[in-house]
Amino acid sequence: MVVTKLYQVPVVGVAMPIMWFYLLTNVITQYVCIWGVLILTTECTSLAVTLIVTLRKFVSLIISILYFQNPFTVCHWLDTLFVFIGTLMYKEVWNNLGITRSQPQKEDKKN
């Protein structure tokens, strides 16, 4: 017979097996994430939502690598470069920088 150690949930004050607590926490966080993406799709274009979700996954990957102390290989650096270049290309950062530099400063004329 397997004896299950109960975990006392701090805020709620309920005791449950630790694996049930992990499952419940995972379900709640997944619900919040999906709810946020659904709201985001009503406010942004589908390409912007895809970009934001990709950046969120990238941040999750970086946190996971740091937390579990896995090596950050050359492939990770290359992927990081691709993510940021893609983000900057989508937001047209380089085009906007070129326009602001090449445009002369306009003076306010009041008659």
From TrEMBL:
<dbReference type="GO" id="GO:0000139">
    <property type="term" value="C:Golgi membrane"/>
</dbReference>
<dbReference type="GO" id="GO:0005464">
    <property type="term" value="F:UDP-xylose transmembrane transporter activity"/>
</dbReference>
<keyword id="KW-0472">Membrane</keyword>
<dbReference type="GO" id="GO:0005789">
    <property type="term" value="C:endoplasmic reticulum membrane"/>
</dbReference>
<dbReference type="GO" id="GO:0005462">
    <property type="term" value="F:UDP-N-acetylglucosamine transmembrane transporter activity"/>
</dbReference>
<feature type="transmembrane region" description="Helical">
    <location>
        <begin position="74"/>
        <end position="93"/>
    </location>
</feature>
<keyword id="KW-0762">Sugar transport</keyword>
<protein>
    <recommendedName>
        <fullName>Solute carrier family 35 member B4</fullName>
    </recommendedName>
</protein>
<keyword id="KW-1133">Transmembrane helix</keyword>
<dbReference type="InterPro" id="IPR013657">
    <property type="entry name" value="SCL35B1-4/HUT1"/>
</dbReference>
<keyword id="KW-0813">Transport</keyword>
<comment type="similarity">
    <text>Belongs to the nucleotide-sugar transporter family. SLC35B subfamily.</text>
</comment>
<keyword id="KW-0812">Transmembrane</keyword>
<dbReference type="Pfam" id="PF08449">
    <property type="entry name" value="UAA"/>
</dbReference>
